[in-house]
Amino acid sequence: MAARARYTEALAALLPLEIRAHSEQQTALEAQILTNIGGCYYATRNYASALRTFMQARALAEGTAQHALLAIVGVNISSLYFEMDNLDAAEDESQRSLQVLDGLSAGQCAQIHCQLGRIAMRRGQVAAGRRSYATALDLARQSGLPATEASVLEHYSYDLLQSGDASGARQRAREALQLRLHDHLAGTEVAYWALGRAAARAGETHAAERYYQLAFKGATEPRSSMPLWALYRDRGKLRLQRGRLRGAISDLRIALEQAERVAVIPTDDNRIAFESGLAEIYQDFVEAGNSLALRTPGNTALMRETFEANERGRYYSLRALLPLANEWRSHLPPLHGELLAQLQTYQRRALSRPSPAVRDAIRRLHVALEETELAAGAAADPVRVPAFSKIRRMTGTEDAFVSVVLGAQDSWLWSITAAGLRMHRLPSRAVIAAAAREFTRAIQTESADATPRGSQLYQMLFGAAEKEIGAKGRWLLSLDGDLFSVPLTALVADTRGRRPVYLMERHAVQYVTGAQMLHAAPQTPVDGLFIGLGDPVYNTADPRYDGRREGEPSLPGETDLHLTRLNGSGRELEISAAAWGRERSSLLLGEQASKLRLRQAMRRHPAVLHLATHVLQAPDRFHSGVIALSLNTQRQVDLLSADEIVRQAQAAPLVVLSGCGTGRATALPGAGLMGLTRAWIGAGADAVLATLWPTEDDDGHFFQPFYESLRQAGTTPAMALQRAQIAMLHSGTFRASPDYWSTYFVVENDR
């Protein structure tokens, strides 16, 4: 704090009000002072302020010939992104630093190659990581820089351990310790920490405890920059493995308290990555706390604490996206829109002609978008409230809130009803995931073993909690991992004669994005406007295409996205509009199913937005869906991505995505399900209905009972979905098969 104040005073002295223009020397000095201030923020884990300050320093340094300073700033920014686990941005900054190697010292070059080694190893690119580390070590050794060499060795030790090379990790840690002791260098605590991790991985628990104690001794010194939360995390994990539950809980509690105080870089990608990075601590804390709670019956305080911790870990990234008045989106410069347009161009190329160059361009554009959002203010940390108290206030006699976390050793389920909080131990993540895959496969292939597998998975997940939740009409499910891809409504809760009784027959199933996200909001207004968009024009051969000219060549840049017409989607929207009320409906069909028309329609603040289009798998790291709209003025299929949806924040209270697997995406620890459902919730929707796999284009029979039910007072989207699924089950047609109706699910945070 004192150092930052001194640097700030120096900066103020350098910039008297009468100065109108800086010399290059003054500009470089200002950039250096800002870099030092950023370093002070970095040391105190205020990563948000650190990044903003480093970006100011970089902007100044770019106007000088100070290449070395520019590279130093880049390495610092890369390290910040790496701490957030945002590897794309970290690599982009390191590569930018490599481009200005002229004028850099050997130590600075070593730092850059070390950072590239860390990034490659974190991505699982072990060979590339080893090469970068070898280059960094050679530079440090040839230049006689023992402190730099020791730092590189310690990072290398950590990454080797993560890749499974415990022997190599121990050797590198020993070399680092020897260097620090021989040359009387500060920082021995980091080497002891590395040795402790290696000993723990080898099962040498007593040696690991001893090394950790030595690390703690040095880490508490004022000069140490070691992240104490990570040391508490590792010792807590070790104690958990040894069955020392109270000690593990104590360490992991401190690790969470300290890690949660990190001022995260406030852009969405960084929040997501940081949450995912902390997920292991949350899981270990839950494992230790719940195991001890089971040994001490009546310890409801500990059970509640683990529940709060788990739900807290599911909160930050999505909650921070919800639109607010005068928020960061309203301050975005025109450049942001240009970057989004460029991103769509490269996404289209990636879908039609993927290449490493295209993927690299997409990565760079994501980084540029983040930095533009950061400059606009991004999103502040959301206010947290106790999840248990919030749910108890919102839970009626017919409701059950059910939260599941999947763990390597055990999984856990908490249930909250009007009667209180209960907790149950479930099988491991691997066991549940295997059963979930087999059940989902059986449903999709209409296999004869779908019923027994559905019954088995139901008992595995909910059997132990049947007593408290079995009679509740509505289940609010806060899920984890592989469970997002399971058709839970088709689980078999019972049998009646020879017929299975499906879960959805007894319960309206509502997915929630976490307890912290629940809110008491008005139901979808039944007298509001219905906007339906579908049956787009996907190629110039379509007779509905007005701009078609005989023999005209393709325009430059036209892609090869050859999509078939969704012939039934127009009829689906007609039936849906009739069920909602034609006088309250507006349909965008054919060429009107465009991005421009959609934006215009959203300005009318509809109650329902129903999209019946192709959905393509995006070329991004989350495998999100991309909504395919009608040809644009360049005769290209227009794309609406999750990036654009969440950044423009235009959503109806209810968004229905009836296309091909609209709800499929990566499910991340902590952050939950990515993709289109998250994007629309983040853009302001209260509820999103989506699909797990493609459904037949069959003229919208499913949605007639859905909208007719939703029009009835007091009916939520989850309840309307249940009634539509029951109607299909009793239809006497192919739609009675679970393969048809169980693909639909609803994410809804309203209570």
Features of the shown structure:
30 helices; Nucleotidyltransferase, domain 5; 751 residues; alpha/beta; 3 domains; Rossmann fold; 52% helix
Strand order of the largest sheet: 9-8-10-14-17-18
Helix proportion range: 40-55%
CATH fold group of the largest domain: Serine Threonine Protein Phosphatase 5, Tetratricopeptide repeat
- The tally of strands reads 18
Number of domains: 3
Write a structural description:
There is one protein chain. With 751 residues, the protein is of the alpha/beta class. The chain folds into 3 domains: 2-297, Tetratricopeptide repeat domain (Serine Threonine Protein Phosphatase 5, Tetratricopeptide repeat), CATH 1.25.40; 387-517, Nucleotidyltransferase, domain 5, CATH 3.30.420; 528-545 and 559-748, Rossmann fold, CATH 3.40.50.1460. It is 52% helix and 12% strand. It contains 30 helices and 18 strands. The strands form 5 sheets. A 6-stranded mixed beta sheet has the order 9-8-10-14-17-18, with helices on both faces. Helix 3 runs antiparallel to helix 4 (67-83) and helix 8 runs parallel beside helix 10 (188-201). The relative contact order is 0.07. The model is unreliable at 548-557 (pLDDT under 50).
